[in-house]
Specification:
- By secondary structure, the chain is mainly alpha-helical.
- It has helices at residues 8-19, 29-44, 59-78, 89-101, 116-135, 161-167, 173-185, 191-194, 230-239, 254-272, 292-307, 313-320, 326-334, 349-377, 392-404, and strands at 201-204, 207-212, 222-225.
- It has a three-stranded antiparallel β-sheet with strand order 1-2-3, covered by helices on one side.
- The longest helix has 29 residues, at 349-377.
Length: 405
């Protein structure tokens, strides 16, 4: 079962109870009612669009959705839109254009970092509204059909494995194991990581493996072996005398996550300085959190995969728990790789075995021909083999196979 570290369920249920009688504070009654109906439908999985996954949304997702749609409604009401159902296509496009260009800013005066999140959420909300009204016999135009959803770069703090190792002495043993595990496993923090139990760790063929079950995975369940901290993790579990049902890491609530992230920031600044971690990552060391180990660990493996053809990109994607290659492609671009594929990389073991057999057969053929030439043409017995002529067709075949190898 996934651990509710951030108290998402309680936060959502408290909000539902609070708005049940008097609606959402700070917005019009009609907009408030629509938001409440939308969010409660998402809770049970009703009236979702055909392209969306079926079933109810997680409490974490519900909290994000309600917060962003409320934020959108408040911004639109400042522009005089008190009834969202009266919003025109032109008004919608102009509104989101102003968010993209920074004309509409956050309360602290800064530009929104991921404006496309607002567009995605609004499109989901409007398509829900269209479906609800269609069931009543009312056809609502799709005013967000042409809204732009930009692909935005992810900002994060980048750590190399060497930088992490310099930071470790400043942490307690528990914290060291957690840091190494996050970097090694690429697991999501805090949700997936802190939901792991001792029974999810097992040994196979001398290696330590992790099972992220479907019940705690954000997207897909998966299993993978630990590359760097397997022995330390099993030793830690034994020393703590943890039972199979115990959670591996002692962080149990949102406050404990906050304390860990705060210490992480302090150590990073002390060891690495308060500067930007990487020009393309853009995040400062003072902004680091446990989730940044996922980014950094993935880049570390992607660099290794570039140098070692035996590391599959599919294995890295699976380890990340991603259904698509979108983020892995981003990391590929991050480390500056181009589209070059070395021809020798295409030569898989099956091809090598086949070509080796072909070469062996040709060698036997040349040996036989050489022997025949010696017998028929009377070459001296002490003449070197390389100087003995071979028929042109055989020589050509040998050269072709040798070139492939």
């Amino acid at each position: 079962m996934k651990k509710d570290v951030s108290y998402q369920k309680g936060t959502y249920n408290n909000w539902k109870e609070r708005v049940k009688d008097f609606g959402i504070k700070g917005i019009s009654k009609i907009n408030s009612k629509l938001i409440i109906n939308y969010v409660t439908d998402m809770e049970t999985g009703q009236n979702v669009s055909k392209k969306s996954k079926k079933g109810g949304r997680s409490f974490g997702r519900l909290n994000v959705s309600k917060n962003k749609i409320i934020q959108i409604m408040k911004m639109l009401e400042k522009r005089g839109i008190k009834d969202i159902t009266k919003l025109s296509e032109k008004e919608a496009h102009l509104f989101f254009h102003d968010i993209y260009t920074g004309k509409i800013k956050r309360e602290d005066g800064k530009q929104y970092q991921y404006p496309s999140d607002f567009v995605r959420l609004f499109k989901a909300f409007w398509h829900w509204y269209m479906k609800v009204e269609r069931k009543k016999g009312n056809m609502i135009p799709d005013i967000c059909e042409d809204l732009e959803v930009r692909k935005e770069e992810t900002n994060f703090v980048y750590l190399t494995k060497e930088q992490l190792e310099k930071m470790l002495p400043y942490f307690t043993l528990d914290e060291q194991i957690l840091c190494m595990f996050l970097f090694d496993s690429l697991i999501r923090f805090p949700t997936e990581c802190l939901s792991l139990q001792v029974k999810d760790i097992y040994e196979k063929e001398g290696e330590v493996w992790v099972n992220v079950s479907d019940s705690i995975a954000k997207s897909i369940g998966r299993t993978f072996n630990l590359l760097y901290c397997g022995d330390e993790l099993t030793k830690y579990i034994k020393e703590k005398e943890l039972d199979p049902e115990d959670y591996i890491f002692p962080i149990s609530d949102h406050n404990a996550v906050y304390i860990f992230n705060k210490k992480l920031k302090q150590v990073a600044v002390k060891v690495l300085g308060n500067k930007i971690s990487h020009p393309r990552a853009k995040g400062k060391y003072s902004e680091i959190s446990g989730y940044d180990f996922r980014h950094s660990g993935t880049i570390h493996l992607r660099i290794l995969a570039q140098k070692n053809n035996s590391i599959s990109l599919d294995a890295i994607r699976q380890r990340m728990g991603d259904k698509t290659f979108d983020m892995l492609n981003y990391y590929t671009n991050f480390i500056g790789l181009d589209g070059e594929i070395r021809k020798e990389s295409l030569l898989i073991q099956e091809d090598k075995t086949r070509l080796e057999k072909e070469l062996d057969a040709l060698k036997k053929k040349t040996e036989w021909l050489t022997k025949k030439l010696v017998e028929e043409m009377g070459f001296p017995e002490d003449q070197e083999e390389d100087s003995i002529p071979v028929d042109k067709e055989t020589a050509k075949e040998v050269m072709e196979v040798m070139t492939k190898l």
